[in-house]
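Appendix B, record 7
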Amino acid sequence: MASANRVIVLAALVANALIAVLKFVAAAISGSTAMLAEGFHSVADSGNQLFLLRGAAASRFEASVRFPFGRGKEAYFWSFMVAVFLFVGGGVVAFMEGLDRIRHPHEIDVGLTFNLVVLGAAAFFEIVIAFRPALREFNRKRGSRRIWRTIRETKDPTLLVVLFEDSVAVLGLTVAAGGLILADVTGNSMWDGVASVVIGVLLTVVAWLLAVETKGLLVGESASRVVRSSIRAAALSVPEVESVERLLTMHLGPDEILVNMDLTVEEGLTAADLERITVAVESEIAQVIPDVAKVFIEFGVEQ
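Structure tokens (predicted):
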């Protein structure tokens, strides 16, 4: 995990832990189901940050006989576990609690002002400590690309997980506030339960998106089209290389790419020449794509 991402994850962990305590205390005092759902949401987010930190630490383990390509995919596994935990620990719990409140409504024990103050404080911590730094880093990496394209092409799920979590957290706080206001205006606490159900649905959607994005990386997604084109161009820049017949890539981790390529070269080259060409190709690739960690080359002769 890059140092910037690590700082973002740690900041999100601190913010979510503080917010979880605040929400549970408020839920215990007020009896609000939406507030309780938000508390479970923050607990899930805190656990998710621990998953990300574990994945980052494990992905740095060196290659071994058992793991000859290292353990970079640990980052993808733990990011996938974030999606599972967010679905079960956040979405399902919030949905079921809200459904129970809709079926069995009861009065909220304290006034609207208290709950809104708590939600406002939670929103402040969420936006200032967690969401803004994550959004700033995401925009820096995005550059001029469209948001959805950046999400689809990113190979580092850490920042994506934090950004998605924080986005739905801010939205969830807004929904919880809306539910409490409607419950107070109408005198019907069912709206508090409706807000909890909506929060559960939001968490489920985000969990699904994260699962889809990390699944491909976990099972062996290739490098992006831009990276593949750059690798092909780097190989062709070596004079003796006539063509690239096959190019296979796979992300071993957010910053590690495996490359397997078949190159067609001039006829009559010796073993020493092929060794020199191999070194030259690896050097050219490393200059344009530093994330390429391992390169395997097979040679064929032009007919």
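Remarks on this record: Residues 248 and 260 are 5 Å apart (CA to CA). The chain has two domains: 3-219, 225-301.
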